[in-house]
Amino acid sequence: xxxxxxxxxxxxxxxSPRLGVGLAALGRPGYINxxxxxxxxxxxxxxxxxxxxxxxxxxxxxxxRYFDAARSYGRAEEFLGAWVQARGHRDAVxxxxxxxxxxxxWQPDAPVHEVKTHDQATLDRQWxxxxxxxxxxxxxxxxxxxxxxxxxxxxxxxxxRLAELAAGGVRVGLSTSGPAQADTIRRALDVRxxxxxxxxxxxxxxxxxxxxxxxxLADAHAAGWAxxxxxxxxxxxxxxxxxxxxxxxxxxxxxxAAELGVTPDAAALAAVLAQPWADMVLSGAGNTDHLTQNLxxxxxxxxxxxxxxxxxxxxxxxxQRAELPWN
Length: 327
Fold this sequence. Notes:
Pfam families: Aldo_ket_red (PF00248). The protein has helices at about 45-60, 75-85, 120-135, 155-165, 180-190, 215-220, 250-260, 265-275, 290-295, 315-320, and strands at about 20, 65-70, 95-100, 100, 115, 140-145, 170-175, 200-205, 225-230, 280-285. The protein has about 325 residues and is an alpha/beta fold. β1 (about 20), α1 and β2 (about 65-70) form a beta-alpha-beta unit. The strands form 2 sheets. It has an 8-stranded parallel barrel, surrounded by 6 helices. Strands 4-5 form a two-stranded antiparallel sheet. It has 10 helices and 10 strands. It has one domain: TIM Barrel (Alpha-Beta Barrel), CATH 3.20.20.100.
């Protein structure tokens, strides 16, 4: 790995709108979002590229400028980088992640879709791949789903590499998953390389069902970190598809959506946007219709102290998420 950035870095600057687009559902034919298969009329590479570009075009036209990918999102980085180049959108701000390798070979029913390795060899291999796919360095570069168990936050070699990238202008950090997100975030806040923490960004799951990382994210925000929130719609469970994909929208969410005059997903995202520590909130829309619904979250307000009572215990939430089928 080299610390060369292959071009200027566009800084991550959370501005209006605070809604970005994540490409987890757009870069590969299989994902765990409820109804993902129904959202993909053409699962060929060309078909999915066209669909990804349609969503990206619609988002850009609506003012969205932040776009999030990862090495494990199939061809998401490739689709995103080619779109920026073709459209000439030099004001697009890109984020990506390393640490998972996509292994499904474009098969929606593959037994394994991604493999996690948080070692130096993976970082050294994936950083040049990200540069090549995106056409330059991302503004945010995150450890993908860091956990205390992976040991990545105690790996001097990896942290030194990330410090090199941070010194070159890339904002490095971590994304988190699982019931112990808060513990991981607080450990990350204490990382030091030569007395300085090279990490200054976190992407975490927070939604009306799992709010367990909220206090830790507030701490990160207070420390000057960029805070990006993913899975605000809980992989489709807080949308019109409902908790099981059969339209069973929780009554408090349905009531809030009706009061605001938006769809349940927009109400759920508006609840995330109401959090003062959330710099950027990701839409995981799989098609332009869902994106349009998600964007409505920007024109409504939900009081941060008057959220629908939907929260479950973190371990319950993550167990239910683990049971969602790839489709």
